[in-house]
Amino acid sequence: MRTGTDPLGPRAAGVRVWDPAVRLFHWSLAGAIAWEMLAEAGTDIHEVVGYLVLVLVTFRIGWGFVGPRHARFADFVVRPARVLAYLKDILGGHPRRYLGHNPAGGAMVLALLAAATATGLSGWAMTTDALWGVEWIEELHETLANGTLLLVALHVGGVMLAGFQHRENLVRSMVTGRKSPKRQGPRLRHPAGAGTIEPPAGSAPGRSHRDG
Q: Where is the composition biased (Basic residues) (predicted)?
């Protein structure tokens, strides 16, 4: 039954995809990385925020095993061949839409978790007696930090491209936790566990599609 406050019915609000913990992690990590990028290296606050990043990453790894459906690694971690196939579809202008992370997004999650962990651990190593003032660990930490920033830039670019291709606001969905169900055909379960997918635009609604 439609109400005066929701004239389009319950589907208008979208389907719930990102749980509060995933959203809090996402924006907390984004804020921490932005702070580290702007803060002066070697200061106490830089070190504290670095430890915060490690805590956030540790939480996200655990949540990837026990969290709800779209937060779990099993929902979006796929074989490299499927990631490459998805990237090929992007270049072709007809990528499938996923309610959760798409294959490229899933790979980026893993890359960012690994990069943030390596950067944080190398920063911690710099504070130990054994490696205090050692040049190679300082250079490694700087290189890893720059690599993390590069991944962040690629992530932002990928989000903008996916949002443009699918005509949806992905930033807003990470704030509200909801995404449009897109009434363009049946959503299918990825055989390798990469979340819920929808047929490419222009596909016949009644046909079955396989990814890759």
A: 179-190
Q: What angle do CA 176, 37, 169 make, to 5 degrees?
A: 25
Query: In order of start, what are the domains of the chain with their CATH numbers?
Result: 17-198 (1.20.950)
Q: Rounded to whole angstroms, how far apart are CA atoms 64 and 85? A: 24
pLDDT in tens, 53-87: 999 999 999 999 999 999 999 999 999 999 999 99
C-beta of residue 86 within 8 angstroms of C-beta of residue 195 = no
Query: Model-level pTM greater than 0.85?
Result: no
**Position of tokens 């222009």?**
202
Which among 31, 50, 55 has a CA at the least distance from the CA of 40? 50
Q: Which residue type occupies 84?
A: L
pLDDT single digits (tens) 115-168: 999 999 999 999 999 999 999 999 999 999 999 999 999 999 999 999 999 999
d(CA 154, CA 104): 11
